[in-house]
């Protein structure tokens, strides 16, 4: 298995099917990355590789990053 295949397996990116705007597409990519990283953090914590508070801190930081992305890319109607 090549590195590209491994990356696609570990970090799948799915096509965007919502209303197309560049901002929606960019936010969707950020949201998918957020979901993938949360999944990995949860797996590491469940497997005892990182302590619960470290997992919490990482998730909290990722959430803040996603929220900034939302505020920059999506308008509130």
Strand tally:
0
Radius of gyration (CA) equals: 15 Å
Number of helices: 3
The helix fraction, in percent, is over 70%
Tell me what portion of residues adopts beta-strand conformation. under 5%
Helix-strand pattern:
HHH
| Ends apart, CA distance between termini | 46 Å
Sheet with the most strands, sense and barrel status: none
Would you tell me the overall average pLDDT? Answer: 91
Shape: flat
Look at the helices and sheets and give the structural class: mainly alpha
Low-confidence stretches: none
Short account of what is shown:
The chain is built from 3 helices and no strands. The chain has a domain at 20-72. It is mostly helical.
Please describe what this structure looks like.
With 77 residues, this protein is mainly alpha-helical. The protein has a domain at 20-72. It has helices spanning 3-10, 22-46, 52-73.
Write a concise keyword list for the protein shown above:
77 residues, mainly alpha, 3 helices, 0% strand, Isopropylmalate/homocitrate/citramalate synthase, DUF7219
Task: Map the helices and strands.
Layout (H helix, E strand, L loop, with lengths): L2 H8 L11 H25 L5 H22 L4
Helix pairs in contact: 2-3
Organism: Pseudanabaena catenata USMAC16
Protein name: Isopropylmalate/homocitrate/citramalate synthase
Pfam families: DUF7219
């Amino acid at each position: 298995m090549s590195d590209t295949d491994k990356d696609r397996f570990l970090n799948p990116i799915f096509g965007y099917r919502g209303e197309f705007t560049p901002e929606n597409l960019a936010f969707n990519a950020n949201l998918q990355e957020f979901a993938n990283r949360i999944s990995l953090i949860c797996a590491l914590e469940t497997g005892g590789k990182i302590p619960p508070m470290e997992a919490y801190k990482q998730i909290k930081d990722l959430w803040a990053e996603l929220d900034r992305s939302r505020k920059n890319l999506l308008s509130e109607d």
